[in-house]
Structure formats: C-alpha cells, structure tokens
Amino acid sequence: MIRQFFLTLLFCCACVAHAGPGAHGPNGEHLDAPASTGAAVNAQPVIEANTETFELVGTLAADELSVTVDRYATNEPVLNGNLEVEFNGIKAQGKLHADFGDYSFTDEKLLRALRQPGNHALVFTLIAGNESDLIEGSLNVVADGHDHGLGAFWKARWPWIAPVALVLAAAAGFVWRRHAGKKS
Prior knowledge:
The chain is an alpha+beta fold. The protein is built from three helices and nine strands, in the order αβββββββαββα. It has helices spanning 2-18, 108-115, 150-183, and strands spanning 46-50, 54-60, 65-71, 81-87, 90-93, 95-97, 102-105, 118-128, 131-141. α1 runs antiparallel to α3 (150-183). The strands form two sheets. The chain has a five-stranded antiparallel β-sheet with strand order 1-2-3-7-6, covered by helices on one side. It folds into two domains: 2-30 and 146-183, no CATH class; 43-141, Immunoglobulin-like, CATH 2.60.40. The protein is rod-shaped, with a radius of gyration of 29 Å.
C-alpha cells in the first residue's frame, strides 16, 4: 500500500515536472516564450552601410547573404554592378538577381564564418559602370542563448522543486504516522 502510494505520487510529480515551462515545440520553438508579432520573431542579422554615393542593406539568411545596393541620393537600385565582399581574408563575389534587385553571396566558407556569433566588419567593393566604391559595415550576429541540455531542464523546473518536495515530505510523514499508528 505504501509502495503504491509513493509510486503514484512520484508519477504525478514526474508528470508535473515534465509539462513545466521551458518546453520546446516540434520545431524547437520555445513554447513558454512571450508571444510577439512582426519581424522580431524571425529576426536575422542585418548590415546597413553607406558612403556619399551608395548605400547597402544586407540580410544574413540560412543559405545566403542577400545585399541590396541603392544610390544614396535617389534610392535608385544599382542593378548594373559587380559587388564583392571581404571578411577575415575571405573574398566572395555576389551574384545579381535582377528580378529581386539583390546581390546574393552563397560562398559556403563565407557563410560559415559569418554565422559565428560576434560583430563582423565587412568591406564591400562595388563597381558600377565608371564608378567604384568601398562600403564598410558591420554585421552583428547574436549567439543562440538557448540552453538545450540538462541545465535548461532544471532552470525551467526550479519553481516546482520546493513545493513538490514539501508535498512529498508531508505525504511521507502522514503515511508514516498512519502506518506506525496501526502497528501499535
């Protein structure tokens, strides 16, 4: 009887702890994260830089660094140029997608280096017709601050530990006294 009681109590505590906050959904999303809307949910590292002649905006996605280049004064897209990027000795040539108006960098070595957390100083070389320019900017890549190991398990469940321990101790004391009283 006592053994069944403790096994039932232990099972209930395990269910409560397992369903606690900090759980991940099927795609790894945090189910206890505050709901938010807009671009902040799927925020990707962005670089914005300009010179007196040109401005660029780039987004680091999973499979590419996508960069749009405009004339600074008129916001006219630059679709007739060659764009190269350099980062930590790695140089890569962008491929123009005229239909999207962006230059796509897909060099795997570059992308691997850019995905590392940190503030990355990039230098773009733009040649458009008779004009050329160096455009320097910074891409800030934030580390994934999620702890997916046992540390996350205990951090998410620590509020449950003390109350469950108190309930277990009280139940054990009650059962023990009741059992000890029957033997007397």
